[in-house]
């Protein structure tokens, strides 16, 4: 029995979970809510017995928890209704000890779990974790675009990858988002003239306000079809509740969209490791010189230690320039250094990128047939991102 729940970091293995809580006669929400308050990824909403059909329809919940003071016929009737309306949702029931007959009747409802009172925080968290692991895997994908060193151009690549995904790979068959995790600058918004002046500090003190409705309020949509979440809020890097707020936003955004691209800065943040633990693929943006290569190798080692050898990791050498007598560091030497990690090249496009940045538009708005975009499209196909996006 797990009775030690000390902080939100103990809950990093729980995905964003929308939990509906119904309390029977004589049972109180205060018996349950404090037991999950340590997790930044569990959003609790009350379930009203009079509004079961409305609240259980439309995919607005991930599981149902029912807290009972007794198991009467009225409570069993409500449980029957929940099962009839939402048989696909995990159902966890909390109650005092039951007689053998009550236990038999309860488990005939195909429960995910039954937890006897008195209840410890670890009991409920463990049950929720098991329920979330057993639910069908979603097709939502999260792609991390990480700057291995400052100035490598990861923001430009992340913006263009979201653009290509929305205009070439997804189109009308899915939703694409770009989430800028560099709160110090918020450069994604500035780059394409889609700034967001929403004050995230106004919700930092109450991160549990973050849900799908909140995400829809703060999102910006580019004419090319992708959604942007980019905020210049440097204080989030040191805000007391910044860690929880960012994790809740990440989870809510990834649930909202089929494909989410993350623009991740090179510097360390409190949530960096949590993000690395959850994404589906890694694109490490680097440059072709020794210091950048060393930083990239360090980053690969960190990701492999955290995620193992199976997670897709690719290196993109940005701003690549071909030379008459070959490049300073040969492909053969790069293969020796990176071993099993594939690497790709995206050519220098200073004129196109500078013009796009000065005008506040996408590189594709300047030239759709540039070598830069052709190489980036080729990269996305090579790593089978187009297959994933089309799924």
Automatic annotation (TrEMBL):
InterPro entries (UniProt xref): CheY-like_superfamily, P-loop_NTPase, ParA/MinD_ATPase
Organism: Alloyangia pacifica
Molecular functions (GO terms): ATP binding; ATP hydrolysis activity
PANTHER family: SEPTUM SITE-DETERMINING PROTEIN MIND HOMOLOG, CHLOROPLASTIC, SEPTUM SITE-DETERMINING PROTEIN MIND HOMOLOG, CHLOROPLASTIC-RELATED
Organism domain of life: Bacteria
Keywords on record: ATP-binding, Nucleotide-binding
Name this protein carries in UniProt: Pilus assembly protein CpaE
Keyword ATP-binding: yes
Keyword Cell inner membrane assigned: no
Protein's GO biological process: negative regulation of cell division
Lineage: Bacteria, Pseudomonadati, Pseudomonadota, Alphaproteobacteria, Rhodobacterales
Gene3D superfamilies, per database record: 3.40.50.2300, P-loop containing nucleotide triphosphate hydrolases
Gene Ontology cellular component annotations, sorted alphabetically: cytoplasmic side of plasma membrane; cytosol
